[in-house]
């Protein structure tokens, strides 16, 4: 859930697109066990970077 004060539809859309692309890359990884929790520090970091990039103005 994202709560925000400023109307930033493009930033939110871009954030979710970038996170979705990262998620798909994890799902396509042959070493990832499907239907398990994603516990990758790299994934967490990429989500945080995307949030700073698209949601902080």
UniProtKB/TrEMBL annotation:
Gene Ontology biological process terms from the UniProt entry: endoplasmic reticulum to Golgi vesicle-mediated transport
Keyword Ribonucleoprotein found: no
Keyword Transport in annotation: yes
Source taxon at top rank: Eukaryota
Keywords carried by this UniProt record: ER-Golgi transport, Transport
Pfam families: Sedlin_N (PF04628)
Annotated localization: Cytoplasm, Perinuclear region
Transmembrane segments: none
InterPro entries found in the cross-reference section: Longin-like_dom_sf, Sedlin
GO cellular-component term (any): perinuclear region of cytoplasm
Family recorded in the similarity comment: Belongs to the TRAPP small subunits family. Sedlin subfamily.
Protein name, entry field: Trafficking particle complex subunit 2-like
């Amino acid at each position: 859930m994202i709560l925000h004060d400023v109307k930033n539809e493009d930033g939110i859309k871009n954030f979710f697109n970038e996170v979705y692309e990262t998620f798909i890359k994890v799902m396509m990884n042959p070493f990832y066990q499907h239907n398990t929790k994603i516990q990758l520090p790299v994934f967490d970091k990429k989500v945080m970077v995307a949030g700073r990039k698209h949601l902080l103005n």
